[in-house]
Amino acid sequence: MRLIRTIKQMQDLTSKLHRQGRIIGFVPTMGALHEGHLSLMRAARKRCDAVVVSLFVNPTQFGPNEDYARYPRDARGDAVLCRREKVDLLFMPTAEAVYPEGHDTQIRVGRIGEVLEGALRPGHFSGVATVVAKLFQMIQPDVAFFGQKDYQQTVVIRQLVRDLNFPVKIVACPTVRENDGLAMSSRNRYLSMEERRAARILFKALQKGKALLQQGERDATTVQEEMTRLIRQEPMAKIDYVSVGHPETLEDVSRIEGPVILLLAVWIGKTRLIDNALVKL
Ligand code: PAF
């Protein structure tokens, strides 16, 4: 595995790989890697000739009162994991290289970037879209792999790729979960033991919603209310949103007639967790 720190070096290497006719698979990450990230690397390994992983905690996708400063960072441990997964190139640019003095372009993804997470975290998806577009320019991947855990992010990225004509195929991989159902996330590292136990409520609520739908419930408000009621039974949990939406537009549905996406954002103490379940009826 080669460690790449400059954009020029990265662009030269991927141009060379393209000239050799190799298919480049790309896994963008902010580090603090867990099994979810490793599953993306394995998916890339299976489908592509060369695997590139980026490790960059992107400042522009964090709001002023969010956790950019304390976001878990473990570059050395991450590099060990990447080497174990037989990653070819690990790209670790500095914030100064990605956003040099005078950098003044931002991508604003329309409606899809402004609902749910976008409404509660203004500017978040603009930061994500901008850095992903920049990473695509630096790495020129053929295929890019994202985790389904960040469901809205995958929808935003698909919109970005469509609208800006990036020649990149987007693959969304299933959420990897702990034994008790908690979705793997770098932010789980913030949870105390008691909070970790309380965090199981997210998965339980998704299961509740799924069960109701499978039993024939078709009123979205009932599903949403039942999930909300369950989460409220956990004293450490505070709900940002519980949504029953269309899987592509994420718009709220009223009468359920096809597949729906159940989306949650819940605070457990000072940690904000998100999760989702796609229910195909
Ligand atoms: O999902 C993430 O870790 C980040 O949002 C991403 C895609 C690496 C962009 O910074």
Order of helices and strands: EHEHEHEHHHEHEHHHEEE
CATH architecture of the largest domain: 3-Layer(aba) Sandwich
Give the rounded overall mean pLDDT.
Answer: 98
CATH class of the largest domain: Alpha Beta
Name of the CATH superfamily of the largest domain: HUPs
* Major β-sheet annotation: 6 strands, parallel
Q: What does this entry look like structurally?
A:
By secondary structure, this protein is of the alpha/beta class. It has two domains: 2-173, 3-Layer(aba) Sandwich (Rossmann fold), CATH 3.40.50; 186-273, Pantoate--beta-alanine Ligase, Chain: A,domain 2. Helix content is 38%, strand content 20%. It has ten helices and nine strands. The chain has helices at 7-19, 35-47, 75-84, 95-98, 117-120, 124-139, 151-163, 193-198, 200-214, 220-232; strands at 2-4, 24-29, 50-55, 89-91, 143-147, 169-173, 237-245, 260-268, 271-279. It has a six-stranded parallel β-sheet, with helices on both faces. Strand 5, helix 7 and strand 6 form a beta-alpha-beta unit. Helix 6 packs across helix 7 (151-163). The longest helix is centred in the middle third of the chain and has 16 residues, at 124-139. It is globular. 37% of the residues are buried. The mean pLDDT is 98. The protein binds pantoate (PAF). Pantoate binds at residues 28-30, 58, 61, 128, 131-132, 150, 153.
